[in-house]
Design a protein that fits this description.
The complex is a heterodimer of chains A (281) and B (96). Chain A is an alpha/beta fold. Chain A contains eleven helices and ten strands. Chain A has a five-stranded antiparallel sheet, with helices on both faces. The longest helix of chain A is centred in the middle third of the chain and has 22 residues. Classes of the chains: A alpha/beta (281), B alpha/beta (96).
Chain lengths: 281, 96
C-alpha cells in the first residue's frame, strides 16, 4: 500500500513525484496545506488507476487544515463523488480566492477538447497576456487531443492562477498560470512503440523522442507529430516551463535547461504548462 | 471558388475535417479559400489538417489563407513546408 506521508506540507511537483505512484490506496492529507494543479491531477490519476485496478481508495482531509475547502475549490469533490467517497464538504465561494480557473475536469465529461479550451479562454481572457492565453490554449487543444487519441483513456484537466501580487498592486513578475493535463492511459513509450518506426528503451527516452518535431505514433502520415514539440517551443519561448511525466520518466524544460529524472512509476501521462501571466514584466 | 470560415473555437484535426468536408467536393484543381479571421487559438494540428486535406490529399490548385494571425500563418506555412506544397499556398492577408 502506498500512502502519502505527513510531510511535506505542500504537495507540489517534486513532493508528488516522491510520494505518489502505482498502488495508491490511501491519501492522508492531514498535514498538507496546499496542493498545486500538478499534484492534484497526479493524485486524481493515481486514484483513478487504483479504482480501475479494483482497489478501494480512501481520501482523508480534516477540516481544520483548510484542505477540504481547497480541494472543493479545485473541483476534487466531483472525483470523490465518482468513486463513491463521502464528500469532503466545502463552500464554493473559496474558488475565487484560490485562483482556480478550471476546476479538475474529465475532458470526456466536459465535452472534449473544445469545451475545455473554451472554458479556459472564457476564464482567462481578461486575466493574462494574450500571448500566454494563445500558448495555453494551443497546449490544451494539443495535449487533450493527444490523450484522447493516443492514450486510450480519458484526460483530466485543471488550471490555476498563482498570484503573488497584493490586491490593488500592479501584476508581479512572479505571477503565473499553470495548466495540467493528465491521463491514465498507456503512456508515451507504449504509444510510440505501437509504430514500427520507434522502439524507445525507456520512458525518458520516449518523452525525449516525442518532443522531436514530426515524431508520432501515427506513422502513416508523415505530417503528424507537431503538437507536443510546438507547444513546448511556444511555452518555453514565452518564458514558461513545461513538465512531462510518463511512466517512470519525467522531463522539465525551461529556457535552455532540460531536467531529466527517473521517478516513481505512474500509469499514463501528465503534462504541466506553466507560464508567467505577463511575460517580460 | 470553394471557401469556408473557421469557427472561433477550433483546434482539433477532427474539426478541420468537418470544415473541409463542408466544401463542395472534389477540391482537385480548384482554388480554395479559408478565412482564419474568427479563429481565437490556432493549433498545429488544426492548421496541418487543413493544409493536408486541401493541398495534399485534396489536390487543390491553391489554398488561399485569409485574415490569419501571425501564429496561424506560421503554423500553416510550416505544415505546407513539411508536406511539400508551399508553392500552392498563398497567405492573402495577415493581422497581428
Amino acid at each position: 500500500m502506498a500512502t502519502l506521508p505527513r510531510e511535506p506540507k505542500v504537495l507540489t511537483i517534486s513532493s508528488f513525484d516522491a510520494t505518489l505512484g502505482v498502488g495508491l490506496q490511501e491519501c492522508r492529507l492531514d498535514s498538507l496545506a496546499f496542493i498545486d494543479a500538478y499534484g492534484l491531477v497526479g493524485m486524481a490519476i493515481a486514484i483513478r488507476a487504483g479504482l480501475a485496478g479494483g482497489e478501494k481508495v480512501e481520501v482523508t482531509a480534516p477540516a481544520r487544515t483548510g484542505m477540504r475547502e481547497h480541494l472543493a475549490a479545485m473541483g476534487f469533490d466531483d472525483l470523490l463523488r465518482q468513486i463513491g467517497h463521502p464528500e469532503l464538504g466545502a463552500e464554493a465561494e473559496t474558488m475565487e480566492a484560490s485562483g482556480v480557473v478550471v476546476p479538475l475536469r474529465s475532458a470526456a465529461d466536459a465535452g472534449g477538447e473544445q469545451a475545455i479550451s473554451q472554458l479556459l479562454w472564457d476564464q482567462l481572457r481578461d486575466r493574462v497576456d494574450p500571448q500566454v492565453l494563445a500558448a495555453l490554449g494551443e497546449g490544451v487543444w494539443e495535449m487533450v487531443a493527444n490523450a484522447l487519441e493516443h492514450s486510450g483513456a480519458d484526460a483530466s484537466v485543471m488550471a490555476q492562477v498563482y498570484r503573488t501580487a497584493r490586491f490593488g498592486q500592479p501584476p508581479d513578475h512572479d505571477d503565473k498560470v499553470q495548466v495540467v493535463i493528465g491521463d491514465t492511459g498507456r503512456g508515451i513509450r507504449a504509444a510510440l512503440a505501437s509504430s514500427p518506426a520507434y522502439a524507445p528503451r525507456s520512458d525518458l527516452e520516449a518523452i525525449e523522442l516525442a518532443l522531436q518535431y514530426l515524431v508520432s505514433s501515427v506513422h502513416e502520415d508523415p505530417g503528424r507529430g507537431q503538437g507536443l514539440s510546438t507547444t513546448a517551443e511556444h511555452v518555453v519561448g514565452l518564458g514558461g516551463k513545461m513538465t512531462i511525466r510518463s511512466g517512470e520518466g519525467k522531463l522539465t524544460i525551461a529556457g535552455e535547461e532540460r531536467e531529466a529524472e527517473t521517478v516513481t512509476a505512474l500509469p499514463g501521462t501528465i503534462v504541466s504548462l506553466s507560464l508567467p501571466l505577463y511575460p517580460g514584466s | 471558388m470553394p471557401h469556408a470560415q473557421t469557427p472561433q473555437h477550433a483546434g482539433s484535426r477532427e474539426q478541420a475535417r468537418e470544415l473541409i468536408a463542408g466544401l463542395p467536393q472534389p477540391l482537385a484543381g480548384k482554388l480554395v479559400a479559408i478565412d482564419f479571421g474568427p479563429l481565437l487559438v490556432p493549433t498545429p494540428s488544426y492548421c496541418d489538417e487543413i493544409v493536408k486535406l486541401v493541398l495534399e490529399t485534396g489536390g487543390a490548385e491553391r489554398l488561399e489563407v485569409l485574415n490569419a494571425s501571425l501564429r496561424a500563418r506560421q503554423l500553416v506555412e510550416r505544415s505546407a513546408q513539411n508536406r511539400g506544397v508551399t508553392g500552392r499556398l498563398r497567405i492573402a492577408a495577415a493581422v497581428s
